[in-house]
């Protein structure tokens, strides 16, 4: 486990050194979601469906206790935060470590405005499912007046 953390620390150090060497404009050209973050970033699916249109966000969170997960909706962003506990390593010699652990924070960009107050979330078989009703668009017919 410590080797995995060492790699992450080394990667973060390399990223900082690149920022220092190439300047701030280099860092700004990378989207926030691709910058290295501590912990891990769960994979997500986002789609839109329903007679009452809604966004559905599914996040892979196996091994995460729902009590440690927090959801926030801010504008067109859904923020998923939490923590997957680090597995016990005492008395074990790992050949391979691929199950990421630690804190996570994933910002999911939504393609439409949503009604945050009506959002619902459920968790089953390691998948977090968040339903976000889309905000109704107010349309109005605009009459065309004849030119004078």
Summarize the structure.
This protein is α+β, with helices and mostly antiparallel strands. The chain contains two helices and seven strands, in the order ααβββββββ. Strand 3 and strand 4 form a beta hairpin.
Describe the structure.
- The protein is an alpha+beta fold and 148 residues long.
- The protein has 2 domains: 36 residues, no CATH class; 97 residues, Immunoglobulin-like, CATH 2.60.40.790.
- It has 2 helices and 7 strands, in the order ααβββββββ.
- Strand 6 and strand 7 form a beta hairpin.
- The mean pLDDT is 81.
Give me some keywords for this one.
4-stranded antiparallel sheet; Immunoglobulin-like; flat; 7 strands; 2 domains; alpha+beta; 148 residues; 3-stranded antiparallel sheet
Largest sheet: 4 strands, antiparallel
Provide the spatial order of strands within the biggest beta sheet: 1-2-7-6
For the record, the CATH architecture of the largest domain stands as Sandwich
Structural class comes to alpha+beta
- Could you give the distance between the termini? 78 Å
Find the CATH topology of the largest domain: Immunoglobulin-like
Give the overall average pLDDT. 81
User: Poorly predicted ranges (pLDDT <50, ≥5 residues)?
Assistant: none
Question: SSE order, as H and E?
Answer: HHEEEEEEE
Task: State the total count of DSSP E strands.
Answer: 7
If helices are DSSP runs of H or I spanning 4 or more residues, what is the number of helices? 2
Gyration radius, rounded: 21 Å
Shape: flat
How large a portion of the residues is in β-strands, by DSSP E?
25-35%
How many separate domains make up the residues?
A: 2
Estimate the helix proportion, in percent.
10-25%
Task: Please report the first level of CATH classification, the CATH class of the largest domain.
Answer: Mainly Beta
